[in-house]
Design goal:
Helix content: 40-55%
Low-confidence stretches: 1-25
Order of helices and strands: EHHEEEHEEEHHHHEEEEHHHHH
Number of helices: 12
Radius of gyration: 20 Å
Shape: globular
Largest sheet: 5 strands, antiparallel
Distance between the termini: 27 Å
Oligomer: single chain
Strand order of the largest sheet: 2-3-4-6-5
Length: 326
């Protein structure tokens, strides 16, 4: 089990910013056009320090320090160009829409601005004090239960015009096939026997639910702070079956990538018990083989792109798939 991480700021999916970078080095990492845009929007001046937040896997982030001793500060999130990710969207419009509508619900950071810059799209939002979640799954279950059941959150989601997530085993199988179509032949060959076994299983019908889904509730996007647990990095929210979020959190691959270790059996059981939703837990168990197959395919796609750390993640997800098929 990895050591508990140090406190860090919202927007850092894996590791806190480490001391040691000089101000000059931090300044050199800020694209000039982005700096100008943030200054023109009134969120920074020439004296403001831009502290890079390390650990992001897709986008670049900085925390603005004004030197006033204020506890509150702002995160600048510069979105990378689209890379065709087949499972986790990286959509600044979607994130801006849902953050604006979740303000005041104690679920997500407060959106301050969205900017179009020559360097790309950028969002500015309140920084969340705290540390990445790393151990007890019960608070995560409570947060996701609140997210999926809150009437205010559902209203926010509907008004944000979010897309629908895959619902039911047939939709998950189609998405898995689409991901594998982007992978080399050896990856398809590795997973083909499992897909054949899935095709022979009884289908799990769609739920038809339209709960607000975070879409990426991995360990690095769950921040435990003075005000409780918060979700950050809302670039792929959707409407759909709550099992989608549950599957991403319980995924051995995502736990390994963002936390360094898969959950233990006791932690998985503790999470499902803390949901206090037996019907939902039973539905997740029925769908688990399809979720594991999809995540294994996603890991294969990442490996094909040169992300070597996904090799162990794919192995763990495939092992979970074998177990679920039994």
């Amino acid at each position: 089990m990895p050591q508990s991480p140090e406190p860090y700021s919202a927007g850092d999916p894996a590791a806190p910013h480490r001391a040691g970078s000089t101000e000059a080095t931090a300044d050199a990492q800020v694209p000039p056009a982005l700096r100008r845009a943030v200054q023109e929007a009134g969120f920074a001046d020439d004296r403001c320090r831009w502290i890079p937040l390390s650990g992001g896997r897709s986008n670049r982030l900085w925390q603005l320090h004004h030197g006033r001793g204020d506890a509150a500060s702002t995160v600048v999130k510069l979105f990378a160009a689209p890379d065709g990710n087949p499972l986790f969207a990286n959509d600044p419009d979607r994130e801006a829409r849902i953050l604006a509508r979740l303000e005041g619900l104690g679920i997500a950071p407060r959106l301050r601005a969205q900017l179009h810059t020559p360097e790309g799209r950028a969002l500015l939002y309140d920084h969340v004090e705290g540390a990445p979640w790393c151990d007890d799954p019960a608070p995560v279950a409570h947060l996701l239960r609140h997210l999926h059941r809150s009437g205010a959150a559902q209203g926010a989601a509907k008004s944000a015009g979010l897309p629908a997530a895959p619902d039911g085993s047939a939709a998950l199988a189609r998405q898995t096939s689409a991901i594998l179509a982007l992978c080399p032949g050896d990856a398809r060959a590795r997973l083909a026997p499992f897909l054949d076994r899935l095709a022979a299983r009884a289908a799990v019908p769609p739920l038809g639910a339209r709960a607000l889904l975070h879409g990426d509730p991995v360990a690095g996007n769950l921040i435990a702070g003075p005000n409780g647990l918060r979700l950050i990095d809302w670039q792929c929210p959707a409407l759909g079956d709550p099992c989608e979020d549950i599957a991403h959190f319980l995924s051995p691959a995502m736990q390994i990538i963002y936390r360094g270790a898969a959950l233990s059996r006791a932690q998985e059981q503790g999470f499902l018990a803390a949901l206090n939703a037996p019907d939902l837990a039973a539905r997740y168990a029925a769908l688990a083989p399809w979720y594991h197959a999809r995540m294994a395919a996603y890991c294969a796609w990442q490996i094909a792109r040169g992300q070597k750390d996904y090799a162990a993640a794919e192995q763990a997800e495939t092992a979970a798939l074998k177990t679920a098929l039994r």
